[in-house]
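Predict structure. Chain length: 104.
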Amino acid sequence: MKRYTGRLADNGALVEVDGLPLAPPPRIEHPTTEFAWGYFGSGPLLLAEAILADSLGPEAAAAFAQAFLHAFVARFESSWELHELDVRAWYARVTAGGVRPRGA
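Prediction complete.
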């Protein structure tokens, strides 16, 4: 399973998956192209979409990024670690619990 990590570096936020840079989500409709976390905003939303796209695919990312932002990304501290298993467990809970995706 994949391991996502983030930390603040001298040149900005560094986000990796298994030690390699995390790619931005395939569908970018954000006013920023830089990852951020620890608050609600466009940078954290971009990170939420990227993690979900990498772990679950672009459709899940587009539909559930706001919910993932609220559940995880906005709560991250200056450095953080998240495992793909946790992402998948969260997704299973929200989809089983009837959370409505964005646009539904």
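Summary: The chain has a mean pLDDT of 90.
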